[in-house]
Model the fold of this input.
Amino acid sequence: MATANAKKKSSIFFDLKVMGPILALVVLVIVGAALNGNFLSAGNISNVLSRSAFIGIIAVGMTFVITAGGLDLSVGSMAAFIAGLMILVMNGLLPSMGPGWPLVMVGMLTAIVAGTTAGFINGFLITNMRIEAFIVTLGTMGIYRSLVTWLADGGTLSLDFGMRSVIRPIYFDGILGISWPIIVFAIVAITGELVMRRAAFGRHVAAVGSNDQVARYSSVNVNRVRMMTYVFLGILVGIATIMYVPRLGSASSSTGVLWELEAIAAVIIGGTMLKGGFGRVWGTVIGVLILSLIGNILNLTDGVSPYLNGAVQGVIIILAVILQRDKKAEG
Amino acid sequence: MKFTKFTGAFALAATLATPVLAQDTKVVGVSIPAATHGWAGGMNFHAQEAVDRLEAVYPELDFVLATASDAAKQVNDIEDMMATRNIDALVVLPFESEPLTSPVQAVADSGAWVTVVDRGLAAEGIEDLYVAGDNTGFGRVSGEYMASAMPDGGKIVAFRGIPTTIDNERVAGFEAAIEGAGIEIIDMEHGNWNRDDSFTVMEDFLSKHAEINAVWASDDDMAIGVLAAIEAAGRDDIQFVLGGAGMKEMIARTRDGDEMIPANVTYPPSMIATAIELTAVGLTSTAPVSGTFVIGSVLITQDNAADFYYPDSPF
Done:
């Protein structure tokens, strides 16, 4: 009797947990539409989705890292560093290769290789050197931020002007009016969701985050799984950077500041547990959209003093998480 | 090139004064924020350049340059300079006014010369020399240009920096200058002196407002974000974007006659060089340099843009 009762109860809470972020998103959309007629215009929706793509692509990777019980604070600095590197490589090869798609491909390859390497370094230090993920990525966060400042000599790295018109379409163009960042974000999110739900890797990630001892006894290669989550996140940071560089064609020490916290916030809003063991990729996507919509709505309305933008954001983030928490859980 | 004549005169004065005063070595500490954004990067560049040049000019002066990434680190830097280098003079661009006030006070109490740059200290009367940027003037010059460029008035959107006193003074100066010119600020948001933030805000302004005649971006980094958003939206109602601070890429576009960027307003990061030079003069000569030295903000248009283009500076 008791077990049946508990089961029933938990299923109700489960529904609220699932619906929480969606409910918050729907409320935000209704509020936005009520406050400004242009909110639901195709242009605004496209803007919001495109600008969500950077954090969104990174946050999908972050979902796996957090589900496996890890954390990565370095992604914002890593994105800035990779953006700087990509610009330097393309500028350096411009005289020999000339402006064109081959050079863009080299730039993309640079970003992916750099992202993979950076993810591998984080993963190696965490799994093989057995250092806390928080400390490792706090360290690499500072390292990448300093490196991009140093590469830019304290200023801004700008893509050569001849190259900008070639690379610009990656952010601003697309297929059938849907821009590339939105398409790539969608592909990454759907793939992430499938891997988390259907693939063995997704279940291993959750198992490692839930209890790594049990996972080890169940013949899951815990270190390899952990390592892979960081490498995947690094690759996704590379992909996000490929979308980012074409927008303004520049990178500086202020690029990607606080992206790591936005990505982590999106993951948690989406229902993934910060202590690991359970992850929800589609929830992360909702979380990212909630975060960008708040900023968008605040820009479109006059009611709130711009000094209070951060406070409004904070309140909505906390509300979105309260909505999906089982009241008697943890404590 | 604004300071060349100025520094040239000092260098000359210094060469004349050197033989008389060349005795024991004096140590000058220079403490500045690290190059965490474009303007600070330019300031670091000019500080390093001034130190290199002055060490050659004045053999009897020794310079210690420290860059700090936050206020606490800057306090440590200054305490270290006091304890280990026994500095005779300190040139400081405070990260924040409040936390730096008492450490700098301690330096002044030890008898060393104190030069404060750009951001003032929280208490008055500590520094011997204050080399200040003119933020109200920066806003006023920007506003006056806006008023003259839009004789029939119009609708503009304005971008603010990171919420600080500097930003408030600039906006107040700007608003005072456009008063009565028929220019209406239809929207104002913080772009945080950041390209990405300004790009996002401008995208939203463009969705929100069907007609915008001009943009006061108030900073060149923000102007770059604003211009990218306008270009992407394909809007042609915006006549021009006014940035500020004199980033070299933007100066070059003004010089080359880009219609979207017809002007710029200076807030020179090289003011740190002015401060170091004046301090060196004070230490090595009998020329009085105490007081307040306000570096005015100057309007740059196509006519004089070439004079403000520093190809070697990172900013």
Confidence is low (pLDDT under 50) at residues 1-8, 10-22 of chain B. Chain B touches chain A through 38 residues (CB under 8 Å). The first helix of chain B runs from residue 4 to 21. Residues 11 and 227 of chain B are 41 Å apart (CA to CA).
